[in-house]
Amino acid sequence: MWSLGLALIAMWVYGMGRQTQRPVVGAVATGALTVLISSMFAALGTLFLAIYSQVSMLAVVLAGVTLVIAGVRTQLAFRRLVKLADIRHIAHTDDLTGLPNRRALYADVPARLVKRVNGPSALLLLDLDGFKEVNDSLGHDAGDLLLIEVGARLAANLRDEDLLTRLGGDEFAIFLNDADRDDAIAVAVKLRAALAQSFPVEGISLHSSASVGIAVFPEQGHDLKALMRRADMAMYRAKASRSGHHVFVAEDDSHGEDRLRSLEELHVAIANDQLLLHYQPKISMVTNEVHGVEALVRWKHPVRGLLYPVSFLALAEEAGLMGKLTDVVLRLALDQAVVWQQRGLFLTVAVNLSASSLVDLDLPERVGAMIAARGLASSTLMVEITEDFLMSDRARAKDILTRLRAGGVRVSVDDFGTGYSSLAYLRELPLDELKLDRSFVLPMLEDSRASALVASTIELAHSLGLTMVAEGVENAKAFEELARFGCDQAQGFHMSKPVPAEQLDLWLRQRGADVLAE
Ligand code: C2E
Ligand code: CA
Ligand code: CA
Questions:
Q1: 472 CB near ligand 1 (under 6 Å)
Q2: What's the whole-model pTM score?
């Protein structure tokens, strides 16, 4: 008994030591508990033995001390457990509303789904409409108060067994136990009706509405992650259609997957030389010479064939691929300029820059290096920028354009007349050319106002010392009219569509060598 007692004490001390190294885990570790319980039994056993037989006094005292220490130790473990439960509660609770939070949702729902394999349940994502306006106009405190009230009102309209959580911001997730599609819709309608009643916040009565996306288990997802994704898509659909609530259907997803597929393909296209350029000439209206061409990007898609910018530029912009695309276009355009120059054709090549090129402060240096590496004169390159490029961040645009132009690159304002900008930038920025948008040129012959605008824009350009180029010149009449107004250059289907370089060579040759500028 003595040796057993000593061994148990030694084990207990060992257990305590481990525990101080890993306090939280140790408190619940079964190993430590086994040691504790066996020590208590051993001590009790010793005491029982002392009743019936002769046991040394020291053993009895030691057994008593063991029991006292074990009692204290149990008390400590109990306190730790309570504290642990507190921490868990805090970690699973949203500070502002006191509702369970996202962590609670992810901790709780998977277990509920396992239990509900045979019956339906539903996940609702609820997002307040116009919450940002409340925050912006009344301040964050009012926004917070509104969220608290909304949380309380939602809770009051749900059953005890449902799980209401705040995911963050103005977004709530609700898991309905034992609810099919119709039940879920009924709950969504009820909750929206409850939120439609005004909220008294800081003495004002606020009105709130919400959009609810619904995904039903198990049809629309077997786990929480799938249900969340689909409820989210349904919620966006509800918001976009202003329908209040929407139950996920397969079509809601198709756009997303299509988009991902073409995004992946666009990455490949940029990396694997599937992008190519077509060139459209700009023709002098005075001498009929061709001074330059505009490079327009195309995508030779392996399955869909030749794609025009309208079908992929927005995607490139959204996906942050515009910088890479612009680099490819610059490389192809400058390479082509080299080929032309080797044949004695000194054409200015114009490349379109998008507004996102503004974030790229290294652009002027990169462009300079690309031109130098090919031994070209800087004036071979022209960049075409739109007014939104100029307007999105005037100071940055000015910085980038000034550095480009200081390097000798020429600058043109594209789609001139379509932006809602002030004309002040014409005075401030370093420019060479204005390209009158085709929406003025096309109706010019029928519409006297359009033709007056064209005439005065040409005058404006000249008074600023800029070259005027008309886009969208589709017929001889428009060409003649523009020439009469004194327009410098023309570009459009009347002269040539944008075509591959070889085809442009052919076109140039047919026009005769005399029309080429030196
Ligand atoms: P944009 O810069 O205004 O380019 C002229 C567009 O007008 C071209 O369309 C061209 O095919 C079309 N066009 C030319 N002549 C005529 C005509 O007589 N009548 C009519 N109705 N249209 C004419 P495209 O090639 O589809 O390009 C569309 C737009 O895509 C371009 O408009 C430009 O903003 C953008 N884009 C094209 N290539 C690039 C590029 O490499 N980078 C960037 N960032 N944008 C590009
Ligand atoms: Ca252009
Ligand atoms: Ca244009």
A1: yes
A2: 0.59
